[in-house]
Design brief:
789 residues, alpha+beta, 6-stranded antiparallel β-sheet
Length: 789
C-alpha cells in the first residue's frame, strides 16, 4: 500500500510506458490511455483510503471504486472459480446490463475475498469522487421521458428469467443495485436469492412505488400494469414484456428518427487480398429516415486463398436479398419476435448458401470457407443486432462505450459455462478460435444471436471486424474519434476513414472493415405527447387494429394522442365454403366406390384430430429467447423448433420430449421382439451419429430424469452385444457392452442405438446448438482463424 503519485501504464503491449494520471495520451507512443474504473465487492478493503494503491496496481478513487493502473497486464484470477461468482460468468451474454468479473483483488496480507467488477469503457472525464460509477435509477426517474421510463422497465422484465435461473433475481428488487447509464439499465452487482424465493409480483410492487413520479402520459397505464402484476393477472415476464412493447411502440410513434451509415473495408498492410465484405458498398455514405431501410453488414471471411472472400460476399448477398424481399418497410410484421425470427432465417439461409458451395467443391474440415457476420437493422423505435462469429458491434453514447455482442469463440464459451474469468480465459492457447461461423456446418447446428434495443437517445453503433477490435483499439480511441459525432464536431465518413487508418497503423495484421450507424432521435413537442390507455387483454403482438387517434381534449388546446382499439367488421362468406364441402364430399363418395381399398388406406394414414388421441401439448415460446439467447448454464437451451426427418443430419443434437426405444442395429427395430431395446427417458439429449435412408443412429449425450434401462425379451441363454462408444479420454477394454437378456441393465451416456428417421417422437424433439460439451458429447470442431494469418 502506497500513496505515491499514480502512474497509468500505456495499454499498448509494445509500449507499456507509465504516464502521469493527468495525461490523456501516452507520452511515448501517443495512444489514448485506457482507464478502467472498477467496482469492488466483498470484504477486506475497509482499511484503505482514497489515494492509496493496492498491490502496486489498483488506485483507490473512493471506498468502492478503484482504477487499474496496469490495464495491459492480466488481473489476478483464482485457480478454481468459487461458486459465489459463477452467476456473473454464466450471465456474460447479458454483459451490457450485468457487470462482469474483472479479477480478484489481492490485499496487502495476501488474503482477500474481494472481487473487481467491470462495466464496459466509461468516459475518462467522469467524476467518481462521489463514490458511484452510475446514477441510481430512482434519482433519474422523474426527469426521464415516458419512453425511457418504459424502456428501463422493459429491461428489468427482460432480465427476470435469466437472473432467476441463476438464483440472483433478487438483484432486480434491490433499489441500490438499480443504476442507469443513459438509456441502458445497469445492475451494480448481483446478490444471491434467499428464502423465500422472490416472486414476479414483487416487481409490480416495486414499480408501483415509482408511479407518483411517473410522467402524466403513462401514469394511468403504469398504475394498471402494476396492479395486474401484483394480482398475478400478468404471471410471466413474457406477458409483461408484451405490454411494455405495446406501450413503447405507441409512445415512439411521435418521435422522428434519422440514420447515417458509412462503411469502408481495406485490405490492410499485411495481406495481399481482402476477405472482408460490407454493406452498403465500401466508402459509401447513406442517409435514411424512419421507416426506411437502414441495413448495415460486416463480414470477415475465413479460409485464406481457399475462398474466405467468396464466403463473405455470399453472406452479404444472401442476407441483403432476404431483407429486401421479406421485410418490406410498409408491411413489416408488428411482432418483434417475428422480426427476430426472420433475421435469424436470413442468417441461416446465408449459412446454407456457403455450405452448399463448400459441399459442391468437396471442401472438408479446414478447407471449408466461411465467414463471420454482424448486422444492424433499425426499425421503428428499435434497432436489431445480429451476429455470428467474433466480429463485433459496439454501442457508443455520451455515457460510455459498450460491446453489445459476445464473441463466438473458445474464451467466451469458457466464461459462460462458468469455467474461467474472461480476462484469464483470453490468455489460453486457442482462446480466439471460433466455435461457430457461417458455412462450416448445417444450419441445424447454427445459433445466430439476435438482440433488440429501444432507441430513445442519439447514439452510434460501430460494426467492425477484428482487424480493428483486436488489442482494445475501440476502447482506446472511441472517446477521441467516435464520440465527437454525437457532439456534431465531425461526421461518420471522416470517422470511418480515421478508424481504418488506426487499424492499419496500430494493428496492421489483418483486413479491416467498419460500418458506422449514427442514430438521431428527435423528441416530440409538448403538444404531441402520447397518452396511453391500458388494455386488459394481452395480444401476441401489437395488432394492426391498434392505432393512434388524435383528438381534441376539452378545455385544452393541446392535442393528445390516445391508444385505442378498433374491431374490424366481420366478413361473412357462406356460399363458397358450402360449395367446396359439397364437391369434396361428392369426390370422396365416388372414390370409395371406384377403389375402396385405396380409400381405406388413405383414411387410415390421416392423423387423428381427436385431442384425446394426441399426447403432445402446444409449446409456448419465450420472446426473450429470440432476442438474446440465454447461454447461462453448461446445458445448452433447446430451440422451440420441431425436428423434421430431413433435418436429422450428422452432428445435430436433439432433446426428446417423450421416451423412445432404440435398437442395437439398423436391422433390429424396437417393434421386433427378438431385439435388445434401449429405453431412453424423456428430456434426454441425443446426437445424430449416422443416417441411412430410413433410419438414424443416435448417441445418448445426457439422460433425462428417469433412470435409463436396457431390456430384452430374448431367452436368457442368448447374450447380445450392444455397441457403445467409450467416453473421450477414458480408455475402454472393448468397444461393446454385454447385456444379459431378460434382465434390466443400467446404461450410461455414450450408448448408441437406431430408430426410424420418421419416428414422431424424434419429429417432436427440440434441436439446439452443439457448441458445448454435454454429457458424453463433445463440442463441434472449432475454427482457428490464426491459420489464415
Amino acid at each position: 500500500m502506497s500513496r505515491t503519485a499514480a502512474k497509468i501504464q500505456c495499454s499498448n503491449p509494445h509500449c507499456l510506458t507509465p504516464n502521469p494520471d493527468s495525461e490523456k495520451f501516452c507520452q511515448k507512443c501517443g495512444i489514448p490511455l485506457v482507464r478502467r474504473h472498477l467496482w469492488v465487492v466483498g470484504t477486506g478493503i475497509e482499511i484503505y483510503k482514497p489515494g492509496t494503491t493496492i498491490g502496486d496496481r489498483y488506485l483507490f478513487k473512493s471506498p468502492r471504486i478503484v482504477l487499474d493502473t496496469k490495464p495491459a497486464s492480466p488481473p489476478q484470477a483464482p485457480e478454481e472459480v468459487p461458486d459465489e461468482i459463477i452467476p456473473y460468468l454464466k450471465l456474460s451474454p447479458y454483459r451490457l446490463r450485468v457487470p462482469q468479473i474483472y479479477g480478484q483483488l489481492v490485499t496487502q496480507n495476501g488474503r482477500s475475498s474481494a472481487w473487481l467488477l467491470e462495466y464496459g469503457t466509461l468516459p475518462n472525464e467522469q467524476n467518481y469522487s462521489q463514490g458511484e460509477l452510475f446514477p441510481a435509477l430512482i434519482k433519474e426517474w422523474q426527469a426521464a421521458s415516458s419512453l425511457r421510463q418504459i424502456n428501463w422497465l422493459w429491461q428489468m422484465a427482460y432480465l427476470w428469467n435469466p437472473l432467476q435461473n441463476q438464483g440472483v433475481v433478487s438483484s432486480l428488487l434491490n433499489r441500490e443495485f438499480l443504476r442507469v447509464k443513459g438509456t441502458i439499465l445497469q445492475l451494480r452487482e448481483l446478490q444471491l436469492d434467499g428464502a423465500p424465493t422472490p416472486q414476479l409480483n414483487q416487481l409490480g410492487q416495486l414499480w408501483a412505488e415509482w408511479v407518483a413520479e411517473t410522467s402524466s402520459e403513462i401514469n394511468n397505464y403504469l398504475t394498471r400494469l402494476c396492479s395486474d402484476i401484483q394480482e398475478n393477472k400478468l404471471s410471466t415476464s413474457e406477458q409483461i414484456l408484451k405490454k411494455l412493447d405495446e406501450a413503447a411502440a405507441a409512445l415512439a410513434r411521435e418521435q422522428q428518427r434519422s440514420y447515417k451509415i458509412y462503411t469502408r473495408t481495406d485490405r490492410g498492410i499485411a495481406r495481399d487480398h481482402n476477405e472482408d465484405a460490407c454493406y452498403p458498398d465500401s466508402d459509401r455514405l447513406v442517409e435514411t429516415f424512419q421507416d426506411k431501410e437502414a441495413l448495415a453488414l460486416v463480414c470477415d471471411g475465413i479460409g485464406g486463398h481457399e475462398g474466405g472472400e467468396i464466403a463473405s460476399q455470399l453472406a452479404i448477398r444472401s442476407v441483403r436479398e432476404g431483407v429486401k424481399n421479406h421485410l418490406t418497410w410498409g408491411n413489416l410484421p408488428n411482432n418483434p419476435d417475428e422480426i427476430a425470427q426472420k433475421l435469424e432465417t436470413f442468417i441461416c439461409n446465408a449459412n446454407d448458401a456457403i455450405s452448399q458451395r463448400n459441399d459442391s467443391e468437396h471442401r472438408q474440415e479446414r478447407r471449408r470457407m466461411g465467414t463471420t457476420l454482424v448486422m444492424s437493422l433499425p426499425y421503428a423505435h428499435e434497432i436489431y443486432i445480429t451476429h455470428v462469429g467474433d466480429s463485433r458491434v459496439y454501442w457508443l453514447s455520451r455515457h460510455g462505450c459498450y460491446q453489445v455482442t459476445l464473441d463466438d469463440d473458445v474464451a467466451s464459451r469458457e466464461v459462460r459455462l462458468g469455467y474461467a474469468l474472461y480476462r484469464d480465459a483470453i490468455q489460453y492457447h486457442a482462446s480466439g478460435s471460433l466455435v461457430q461461423a457461417l458455412g462450416m456446418s448445417s444450419s441445424a447446428n447454427l445459433r445466430p444471436t439476435v438482440q433488440r434495443f429501444i432507441l430513445d437517445e442519439d447514439g452510434v453503433f460501430l460494426l467492425c471486424s477484428d482487424g480493428l477490435s483486436d488489442n482494445d483499439r475501440v476502447e482506446q480511441y472511441w472517446e477521441k474519434e467516435i464520440l465527437p459525432i454525437l457532439e456534431g464536431e465531425t461526421d461518420v465518413a471522416e470517422v470511418g476513414q480515421n478508424l481504418i487508418k488506426i487499424a492499419n497503423q496500430r494493428n496492421g495484421h489483418d483486413n479491416v472493415t467498419v460500418a458506422l450507424v449514427h442514430c438521431q432521435v428527435q423528441e416530440p413537442g409538448s403538444s404531441q405527447k402520447t397518452t396511453l390507455t391500458y388494455r386488459d387483454r394481452i395480444s401476441s403482438s401489437i395488432p394492426k387494429s391498434t392505432f393512434l387517434q388524435t383528438r381534441k381534449v376539452e378545455g385544452n388546446s393541446n392535442q393528445k394522442t390516445t391508444l385505442q382499439d378498433s374491431q374490424p367488421a366481420k366478413r361473412r362468406f357462406f356460399l363458397l365454403p358450402l360449395i367446396l364441402l359439397l364437391l369434396l364430399g361428392s369426390g370422396a363418395v365416388v372414390w370409395f366406390f371406384i377403389n375402396p381399398l385405396a380409400f381405406r388406406t388413405a383414411i387410415g394414414n390421416v392423423p387423428s384430430l381427436n385431442p384425446r388421441e394426441s399426447s403432445s401439448e402446444p409449446e409456448i415460446s419465450s420472446s426473450s429467447e429470440a432476442e438474446e439467447p440465454e447461454i447461462t448454464s453448461s446445458e445448452p437451451s433447446a430451440a422451440e423448433t420441431p425436428t423434421s426427418a430431413r433435418e436429422l443430419k450428422v452432428g445435430l443434437r436433439i432433446q426428446i420430449q417423450e421416451a423412445i426405444a432404440l435398437a442395437p442395429n439398423p436391422q433390429a427395430t424396437p417393434n421386433n421382439s427378438a431385439s435388445t431395446i434401449i429405453q431412453v427417458p424423456e428430456q434426454s439429449i441425443l446426437e445424430v451419429v449416422e443416417k441411412r435412408s430410413e433410419q438414424v443412429q443416435l448417441k445418448v449425450c445426457q439422460f433425462g430424469e428417469n433412470n435409463p434401462e436396457v431390456t430384452s425379451s430374448q431367452p436368457a441363454e442368448n447374450n447380445l452385444n450392444l455397441e457403445k462408444q467409450p467416453k473421450a479420454g477414458v480408455p475402454s477394454p472393448d468397444a461393446t457392452t454385454t447385456i444379459n437378456p431378460g434382465t434390466k441393465t443400467e446404461i450410461s451416456a455414450g450408448t448408441t442405438g437406431w430408430i426410424e428417421a420418421n419416428n414422431q417422437a424424434i419429429a417432436r424433439a427440440k434441436r439446439f446448438s452443439n457448441t458445448d460439451t454435454v454429457g458424453d458429447c463433445r463440442p463441434q470442431s472449432v475454427v482457428d482463424k490464426r491459420t489464415d494469418e
